[in-house]
Design goal:
2 domains; five-stranded parallel sheet; alpha/beta; four-stranded antiparallel sheet; single chain
Amino acid sequence: MEQLNILLAEDDENLGSLLKEYLIAKGYNTDWYVNGDIAYKHFIKNHYDICILDVMMPIKDGISLAKDIRMLNSTLPIIFLTAKSQKEDILEGFKAGCDDYITKPFSMEELVFRIEAILRRTLRQPSKQSEFTIGKYHFDADKQLLKTGNSEQKLTTKESELLKLLCLNKNMVLERNFALKTIWIDDNYFNARSMDVYIAKLRKYLKEDPAIEIMNIHGKGFKLIDRAE
């Protein structure tokens, strides 16, 4: 299998050097940059399969870098490294488009586990059904595109995976824990809050059709309602 390329942005030189050496030893091509500005300049010139970004960096912080990366690539997996444990900071990271986060201090083995879990989700073979009709929308899960009329919305990997689960369970309850374990692997508090952020984004994308609603089912999960059917 072809080696995967990792962009690592970490301003702590000791940690950055250790992470780079460890990831290379695990078989990942890893480029390490000491701030977000340098990382972004190399990102636009090279191909990467996953980005690992420290949140607190000089010149350009990790959240700003993630937003810039998302402007160019809406699906590339991003993991945040953060010394912060406040819920608001972690949620801000998910809003910027990250797929996962890991709080310092962490073990190298845990980081590799997170990388492998994300890559299993993003590189796995798609299930047979990939195209769906949602009211006046057409959703192509493989291409991660939601179209209506002459407009189209490119979805991130997690947005696409979540909408696909909702479509596969249209007009039925999609259980919260099932969705969390399918997409996020772990149904912990922070991932649950992250999923709420993505649900809000999907509601925004689908708001042009009043016949479509993503309903909260208290204590259970969500239901994609298509009243046009």
